[in-house]
Amino acid sequence: MKQYIPSAITACNLICGFTAIMIGDFYWSPILLLSSFIFDSLDGMVARALNVQSDFGKHLDSIADVISFGVAPAYLYSLYSPDIEDRYFTIITVSFIVICGSIRLAKFNSSPSKP
Length: 115
Description:
The chain is built from four helices and no strands. By secondary structure, it is mainly alpha-helical.
């Protein structure tokens, strides 16, 4: 049963990120993204402490991170962008956020694991 605990924490990260997108609230969405950060910080520590690291957990964590730290901030930026009149600039900006987040996670996943 303990092998599921880190993935449950990662799922909390994913739920917070997705909920931040769905509600799109100027005040609550950042709180949810901060919660995502806390869950993201905990899942790896718990997996190592319980000695239950897995490839599944690594990939689930990456998906949750793309949602919480790539898609959600980009979407929220597009909602509250001061450049709302210039949609092309907003599209380029949010695309850049998502691409940078995805590249960072791809680099992390392709790097050798720490002992």
